[in-house]
Amino acid sequence: MINKLHVFIIKGKHIILAFACCFISLMIICFFINYYSKDNSVSALQQNSKYVILAVNDTGMHCYQPDYSKFLILPPGNNLKSQVFLNEGKEAKLINSGIEISYQIVNNTTSANKINFWEYSKDYGYNIAPDVGITGNSLSGKMKLSKDGMFYEAAAIPVTPFNDGSTELNPYQLAAIRVTDSKTGKELVRLDNIVVPVSNEMNCSKCHGASGTDINILKAHDELSKTQLVDELSKGKRHKCADCHQDNILDSAGKPGIPPLSQAIHGFHANKMVQSDIKPECYTCHPGPVSKCYRGVMFAEGVSCVNSKCHGDMEKIAATQAEGRQAWLQEPDCSSCHGEKYGVNAGRLYRNSYLVNNTNAEMNGFILCESCHNGPHAEWKSANLKDNLLPIKLLGYPNFIDKCTVCHEGTGKIHQTVPKK
Questions:
Q1: pTM score above 0.70
Q2: Which pLDDT tens digit goes with each residue over 172-193?
Q3: In the prediction, which pLDDT does 34 show?
Q4: What is the CATH number of domain 51-199?
Q5: Domain residue extents for the chain
Q6: Could you tell me which residues come within 8 angstroms of residue 12 by beta carbon, excluding any fewer than 6 positions away?
Q7: Which residues of 131-146 are buried (b: 16+ CB within 10 A; e: fewer)?
């Protein structure tokens, strides 16, 4: 009896000990949840520096075609922007001199062995070395100060969605950004989690066949437009679409009497999307079922690409260009849903606009909208975890940059009212 009681006591102690451990673990978890909650005024995850980097890809997703041997629609290229602020206590200062900003695509040091663009680049008028993009940038390099002196940028970085040594599609590549003192070379601050999204899911096989897709496209073009693209290709002459069609992405004026590329493609294919069972239908050609280009907060709220206040359907995209709209230079405006107060700057696109509606005049005119809200199609809070790495690092939670304490100790509201949907 005594032995049984002894065993019972020992078991009881083990149960109590186990319960105590569970209780302590639970309290620790609750502490960290509370500590990193949205109500915390300053997150412990912020950059450990008095310098703050806000960096962004400009359009939420760049794409390129998987094969360049027949024609060129878009060369590989991705744009990266960065703003650096100095936290001076209650105030923050935009730093646009005395620093050097370098970037490097993480675990992605070459593109030349992943796509065949450089095999044919000279045929399309790009006399560049392998791994160099059409603006002279590579997968690592220095960012340049913008013309208005408000941010640093690297344009047309020729990144692919394949990391070194891997054939697995990874559209959400990451860039590391390092800021140094231009005189001493001392590192001031760095980030290693800026998404540089890219996809090769530009796909026409749904309608033009899984085999010989690009040749089939050229044949259809020859038949409909009375061109000789297939014959010229057989003689070694390759064309980019922008040789004839206006394309504002490539700053191409095109030829008189020929519709702009976006108008021609959307207009001709608008009534043919019934063949596609891919939703949204934009993913039939744009990236895509794997890349999921459209993933920002508007996507989460159920606003589709073909919403009349956004791009609209393919007929609308083509029709507005026929009426004079310039694709890529005149795009959907935030004010369509959120009102004029939250519209883009006059004569600018969202990706080139600055905060101008704060009641504190000192806040206006220099903070890129994208720096706090992310690029279009991927506005914070994004449905993709990688997109949210930067705000999580700065805030402790995924959201647009909604706290003044990210850059300084002052308090206030970035926007005075919450935009309506």
A1: yes
A2: 999 999 999 999 999 999 999 9
A3: 42
A4: 2.60.40
A5: 51-199, 203-237, 242-285+297-332
A6: none
A7: bbbbeebbbbbebeee
